[in-house]
Amino acid sequence: VHPDTGISSKAMSVMSSFVNDIFERIAVESSRLANYNRKCTITSQEIRTAVRLLLPGELAKHAVSEGIKAVSKNLTCK
């Protein structure tokens, strides 16, 4: 984003609602997948699968890739 570009509070509210909705959908689908596989714990595999099921094509690939990168970065910092 360009440094001189801003975002209105209404637009920020819409984006916040969107992100919260997507996270909730991923959590619910991950839970269903874990339950289906008779697991008590949601693992990264269930989350990746949920993302692939919920997001279309290239967006899912990018989301999974960025998620793996973020987790790897977090693990190397500790």
Protein architecture, described:
This is Histone H2B. GO terms for molecular function: DNA binding; protein heterodimerization activity; structural constituent of chromatin. This protein is mostly helical and 78 residues long. It has a single domain (9-77), classed as Histone, subunit A (Orthogonal Bundle), CATH 1.10.20.10. It is built from three helices and no strands. It has helices spanning 9-36, 44-54, 57-77. Helix 1 (9-36) crosses helix 2 (44-54) and helix 2 (44-54) runs antiparallel to helix 3 (57-77). The chain is globular, with a radius of gyration of 15 Å. The two termini are 30 Å apart. The mean pLDDT is 92.
